[in-house]
Design a protein that fits this description.
Length: 354
């Protein structure tokens, strides 16, 4: 499919423009220098989806453009979604709902009782979300028994005459995945303008809507790069199946054939560490490196692990100096402004080095 054709099919979908787009695609020369320079390290381009604007930004804004558009098209009066206490998705859903004049309920899972009122959770309250906390049952996956609470909340809203629209965890439904089909169109245009063909696109992968959209977009446009999703939590192979299904359903929304189901849905399992939301030494090092070379603010849960994979592949020479790679910065900075992230950062080796 041509970019033109895909753009017009995307334009036919309900959407509410909330994200600030396009986001910049920037060179990271100082990061490259710190990783061995032109002799050893590929050219690194950073796709700044941390700068999508909506409620402090991040990748969920692209999904929410389509999800909120769908909610409004269906006459919703409010949205409900789920996530961890420090969910960027929940925070951006609250922001998006307010921009669209909708009420918002968040059902959030926590292993700490009470969850500290900081970072994303503080912003959820600032945006006026009604927050319902449920205890975690599996810290590796960051899941709790949230379905029952979502059902109760939805029923009580309906009983009061409301029309709640439920958004899947991470916004990772077919509608949400359209955001990263559109994101791929944007990236492809920027790469073409620069005249570069990257070998890989690195990104942190959680609930898989980003992966589904990126894979579908690259498949439809026949783009040559490999998508290198870096898993931040367990749950394979079910999550691969989820990505496949969501990509197939998103293809159907676009009237495209579902052969994307045969595409490669790869995620690297090597950087999860002890589980979702638990910082890793190589992730903390990647955070310092990105901050001290390019003033990029990563987060310990997602983007630190994503960049740690890229750094490891430069050091192991899996990537060559002649390659170009893209790091998709998916956001998450509010989770860095928490006492847990601070404690991890200051106790990691290298913090004192200036
Ligand atoms: C949600 C999120 C991701 C992962 O996106 P999925 O579509 O859930 O896989 C990556 N980075 C950040 C900062 C996120 O908030």
């Amino acid at each position: 499919m041509t970019i033109h054709e895909l753009t017009s099919r995307l334009a036919a979908q309900p959407a509410r423009r909330l994200a600030v787009l396009p986001t910049p695609l920037e060179d990271a020369p100082r990061l490259r220098e710190a990783l061995g320079g032109r002799a050893r390290c590929p050219r690194i381009l950073v796709k700044r989806d941390d700068l999508t604007g909506l409620g402090l930004g991040g990748n969920k804004a692209r999904k929410l453009d389509f999800l909120i558009g769908d909610a409004l098209a269906k006459g919703a009066t409010s949205v409900i979604t789920t996530g961890a206490a420090q969910s960027n998705h929940a925070r951006m859903t609250a922001a998006a709902a307010r921009r669209a004049g909708l009420a918002v309920d968040l059902v959030l899972t926590t292993a700490d009782e009470p969850a500290p009122l900081e970072g994303n959770l503080l912003l959820d309250h600032l945006f006026g979300a009604r927050v319902h906390m449920v205890p975690a049952v599996d810290p590796m996956l960051a899941v709790g028994h949230d379905e029952a609470v979502v059902r109760q909340v939805a029923e009580s809203l309906v009983a009061d005459g409301g029309r709640p629209y439920v958004i899947a965890v991470g916004g990772s439904s077919a509608v949400g995945a359209l955001g990263y089909v559109a994101g791929t169109v944007e990236l492809a245009g920027q790469l073409a303008a620069l005249g570069v063909a990257p070998r890989r696109v690195y990104f942190a992968s959680g609930s898989r809507g980003t992966q589904a959209g990126l894979t579908l977009g690259a498949h439809l446009l026949g783009l040559p790069y490999d998508l290198h999703g870096v898993a931040v939590s367990g749950g394979e192979p079910e999550k691969i199946e989820r990505a496949r299904r969501v990509a197939g359903e998103a293809a159907a929304l676009l009237g495209a054939d579902a052969s994307v189901r045969e595409a490669r849905f790869f995620t690297d399992q090597g950087f999860i560490g002890d589980g979702y939301g638990l910082p890793t030494p190589e992730g903390l090092e990647a955070m310092r490196l990105a901050a001290r070379t390019e003033a990029l603010v990563l987060d310990p849960t997602y983007t630190a692990k994503g960049l740690a994979a890229l750094v490891a592949h430069v050091r192991s020479s899996e990537l060559g100096a002649d390659d170009t790679v893209v790091f998709l910065h998916t956001g998450g900075a509010p989770a860095t402004l928490t006492s847990k992230a601070a404690a991890a950062l200051v106790s990691a080796p290298g913090w004192q080095n200036r």
